[in-house]
Amino acid sequence: MALLMPQEVKEVFQLPKQRGREHLRRLLHWEELDELRDLRRSILLDALYDSVLFAAGKGFPWVQVARAVKFTEELLVETKGCSITEAVRILGNKLVDYQLQFTTSHLLALCDYFHNTFIRHYRLYQFVLGQDQDVNLTVTRLEVCTPPQPLPLAEGTHRDTWKHEQQMAALGTAEEQKRKDVQLLNEALRAEQARLLERTFQLAGAWGAEGTQPHQGLCREALEHLVHEAVGIQIKSLGERLQREIQAAFDILDLRLQRQVLSLNAPLPFPPPGPGQRGPEEPVKSHKGHRGKKAMAK
């Protein structure tokens, strides 16, 4: 590895981590990395980048920071496949070789750094950097649906107001549905009435024909029976219609009463009215107070 220039390692240190790693890769003239498939070179690049951070963070001059990077790469290459005892010996020899290139305090700091990182996790470094790894990578593409763009807050409705509007709308829908049900029921009763009348006329015609000559009308008894049955059918149908309509009228009145009570208990607007502004409940209260005064005057 060629020794990096002081300005180059300074640029690596000053950049954010991802950009700093990428800049260091380009300075080392490495090809682009696939972080998942080329795990060995990715970890090696991390080790070199961490040495830049360590040396610069300890106050090493930029020249010595570049030497620390070179020291790190040489140590990783020379200890490949060695036992931990041999690795400690190689580290000691390299510290002796570099003693003229670092100050005593910086050399001791470099020794502590590699003992606490490289030597302490030596087996892990050897497992990753010393042998090829089989990487089984499965890529699954998932489509993520983003939520819809929310409306501006200025166009929103307060929660209590929205619930009140929903309740009012539900009562209005129930009243309209009640009217439709009554209309459908009246149509069904009229159809049933017409069917019963037609059946009565047919039975009366067949019964009257038994005691009369052909091409003659109904006898008096048959006619009275026909009128009696027809009137009974109409009265019964009318009674059912009136009963259903009365019940529906009570239900509609009950729904209207609920809407009236709900409108009187409407929530205050949001934001609340300022000083001098009239809220939605104030006219109702003043109207009730006016009626109370009139009643007391009477």
UniProtKB/TrEMBL annotation:
Listed Basic residues bias regions: 286-298
Pfam families the record matches: CLAMP
Region (Disordered): 266-298
Name of this protein: Chromosome 8 open reading frame 74
